[in-house]
Design goal:
This protein has 465 residues and is of the alpha+beta class. It has 17 helices and eleven strands. A hairpin with a 2-residue loop joins β10 and β11. α14 crosses α16 and α14 packs across α17. 35% of the residues are buried.
Length: 465
């Protein structure tokens, strides 16, 4: 969703346009300043951004209210005009291409209001009224939100009547569908913004409007040093990027991504112990391929796991924390298994006495271990949630990551959205890695406590890499 900067005419005007959703009471409205040379396809993108829609449905422009009965004027029936996207022109011989008409041609002091319909099922009708104009300075933004009130209705909520019915049900705990609708709203609104009908973030919307004109924007993503975040953002549908970028701001990804040496040593302690115990000479495994019992007992005692473990603490196949640590260290590139022996990698040898370097190495390994699949996206979304520090239960993390994966287009082989158990499977190994680092306070439970500031810094470091 970008608009070509070269489309601007030297003699264009800035039109002050009030946009309101028909039937909304209290009114959902925006006051915009728009370049008169913008074509209607660009105005469509601006309206989607400024109102807060997700651009998931069809749309059109008309110079008459599409749902108001026409009446003759001076004995003649008016001939309404309708502008549509080019790919819809084949369905009608009377419609006009929205790419060929500018806002300044249609919305003038002599014309009546312009109407923009979004989603032909729910029929969200926007009334555009010209309230003033001025010459356009060359440095002026081509689209700017001046004022407004209330967020856009939820997509697919049944039109303006259905939306207000939904708000009534949410406000009434005794309503028969209160809990079901509450869950639907939570999923539809998503984890990146709380649903508040009165909310309107003018600054965030103006930032998004500026990003529609990339040649005029210095830093497109707001996270220029974080290519992982840029790439993830660009793969989201345009209509949801504003919500995602707003959430990234709360995660403070431009904040500290460093750690003190003593904290790094405490967080990486399990990995440091293992690579040091294996040593530069390596460690022989048992004939069955397990760590020797003596090493398992050492690990359980020295890492403080034995006191909370009810099973045997001398066999690796029965001492789950030790087994998970070894598997994690292999996944993250610290150790490898060769002909019945464990050896440490060249990277691990360099970091035996550098806890801070190991901390950063593990952050990069977690973010980059999977390059281009759903597991990689799930890990990045989880790291964003950790950096934000808003979740307190593991199920909440799963819900948030599931929403993000759905927005990125991940589906099952039959086209269905991913179930939470599938997301759980995608995150099971990364979660073990993070548990070993103390990002979450518990081991093996279904709930994850609020992450600590060092845990948030670790997530930022991973996302910066």
């Amino acid at each position: 969703m970008t608009i070509r900067a070269a489309d601007r005419d030297t003699g264009s005007m800035l039109l002050r346009v009030r946009v309101s959703i028909e039937g909304s009471e209290p009114a959902i409205w925006r006051l915009l300043e728009l370049d008169s040379s913008l074509t209607l396809d660009s105005v469509h993108e601006i309206l989607q951004t400024a109102v807060g829609w997700r651009d998931a449905h069809l749309h059109s422009f008309t110079d008459t209210d599409p749902y108001k009965r026409l009446r003759p004027v001076n004995g003649r029936w008016p001939e309404p005009r309708r502008w549509v996207p080019v790919d819809l022109l084949e369905d009608s011989d009377e419609d006009l291409p929205e790419t060929d008409w500018t806002l300044g041609q249609i919305l003038t002091t002599e014309s009546g209001p312009l109407f923009y319909e979004y989603d032909f099922g729910d029929a969200w009708i926007h009334r555009l009224e010209l309230t003033g104009s001025r010459p356009a300075p060359t440095t002026a933004p081509r689209a700017r939100l001046l004022d407004g009130a209330r967020r856009a209705p939820l997509e697919d909520s049944g039109g303006i009547g259905g939306y207000y019915g939904l708000l009534d049900a949410l406000a009434d705990p005794g309503h028969d569908e209160h809990e079901d609708l509450k869950a639907w709203v939570a999923w539809t609104a998503g984890p990146w913004q709380e649903f508040d009908p009165e909310q309107l973030d003018t600054d965030a919307m103006n930032n998004e409007l500026a990003l529609l004109f990339p040649a005029e924007t210095v830093n497109e993503s707001g996270h220029g040093s974080q290519p992982l975040i840029q790439e993830l953002t660009h793969r989201l549908p345009p209509g949801i990027r504003r919500e995602f970028r707003s959430y990234l701001a709360t995660a403070n990804l431009d904040g500290p991504a460093e750690v003190d040496a003593d904290i790094a040593e405490a967080m990486t302690a399990p990995y440091l112990w293992l690579v040091r115990r294996i040593g530069r000479e390596g460690l022989s495994l048992t004939a069955a391929g397990w760590l020797p019992p003596a090493v398992v007992r050492e690990a359980m005692n020295e890492l403080g796991w034995a006191k909370d473990w009810t099973g045997k603490a001398s066999r690796e196949d029965q001492a789950l924390p030790v087994l998970q640590l070894r598997e994690s260290a292999q996944r993250l590139g610290l150790i490898r298994k060769i002909k019945g022996r464990l050896t440490i990698t060249s990277a691990a040898k360099r970091l035996l006495d550098e806890p801070t370097g190991l901390w950063l190495f593990l952050a990069r390994a977690i973010a980059h271990r999977h390059r281009h699949d759903s597991r990689r996206d799930a890990v990045l979304l989880l790291l964003i949630e950790i950096a934000a520090g808003k979740r307190t239960e593991w199920d909440d993390y799963l819900e948030a990551v599931s929403f993000g994966l759905s927005a990125l287009g991940w589906r099952t082989s039959i086209g269905a959205e991913l179930e939470l158990r599938t997301v759980q499977a995608l995150l099971s190994e990364p979660r073990e890695d993070l548990l070993n680092l103390g990002i979450f306070d518990d081991r093996g439970g279904l709930e994850a406590n609020t992450v600590t500031p060092p845990g948030q810094a670790f997530a930022r470091a991973a996302l910066h890499s």
